[in-house]
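Whether sequence alone determines local backbone shape is best considered at the level of individual chains. When preparing material for the folding task, we compiled for one chain both its residues and its backbone structure tokens. No coordinates are needed to read the tokens, only the vocabulary itself. For completeness, the protein is quoted in full, as a sequence line and a line of structure tokens:
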Amino acid sequence: MYLSTIDKTKPVGGWRGLSGNVFALGAVSLVTDVSSEMVTSILPLYLVVGLQLSPAAYGLIDGVYTGATTLLRLVGGYVADRTNRRKAVAGTGYAISAVAKLGLLAAGSSTAALGLVITADRAGKGLRTAPRDALITLSTPEKDLGRAFGVHRAMDGIGAFAGPLVALAVLAAAAQSFDAVFMASFCVAALGVVILVLFVRDHHEHTAPKEPLRLNAITQLLREKPVRDVVLAASLLGLATIGDGFVYLLLQKREGLQIGWFPLLAVGTSLVYLLLAAPVGALADRVGRLPVMLGGYVALAAVYLLLFGPAGGWTLVVLVLLLHGVFYAATDGVLMALAGPRLPERLRTTGIALIQSGQALAYLGSSVLFGVLWQFWGPEAATRIAALGVGLALACTAYLLGRRS
């Protein structure tokens, strides 16, 4: 197997400055995202159409899906820095998410049970994300961070692209049995854990603290203005971002797309994302990470405006999915590459967790607010307010971070 033959601390091939650890972590994320997207690509339609949840109720579940594990993100980051065992903490998170897939077999149509299983899955994601991203930053020279995160996110995007297609193939082969999808999802997730155990190396060099980290590590970080600014900016941007499920539901509603097409909307976004993540990350290293990230949020505002603009038909569908993919390629990994150098090395994982937690909490509020606005003011008004929110968040982010980028 290729990964077993490479030195995970040396540059690989022509990707100067990128270590094998980046590619190994990318492989773990690729496989895990296949598993996750097998389930999540149909979740919005299942909840809103299948279980007849209102937009406000779906907004609450969608927000909890991402935001409710904020504390675990912080716990995972702190424990990883305290123990200097980032791989072990990340692996625990991946394992929890894998086991949660089995819970879907027992949940059935119970909304409460589904909520518990989804929370467990997101708890695993909350634990693993910061240690994983910290390993990438600690395994990569600062000048190549945009490219490193771009390559990782591109591999992650391949998994997100393949997941819905694998789910559709399993459904076709198993006579539309969702239990078969859940079991297959678990098996794929377990493979991701195996890859992490065998091929990812922890990073201990120059990271062991001279004294044990204390529980006030978060307040120590927030006293530093560069860290405080990036946490605030990330939170504002999270507050201006509505969930993918809302975007796809609005697109399906406006164009009257058949239910069978719905999972493929996420595939379209993921295809653009995986094609652009690496080159956009390299571009961010050359021209500046902040301009590229702000450009991604401009693309997101365009998505919101297009949903109720003059364009229609397949032209609208293609434009929305293209811009949505551009948004992710220009923001997801680029934000972490921008934030990494601002964080003290001994608190790198805790700092990344703090940034991600601020975004997750803001995202929870955004999803609930958008769902309420949709239900009481209508989807068009809610979407235009969201576009205005992106504009305000962009202005604040440019002010907060522009002086250092």
In short: The mean pLDDT is 81. The domain at 17-204+217-401 is CATH 1.20.1250.20 (Growth Hormone; Chain: A;). The chain is about 80% helix and 0% strand.
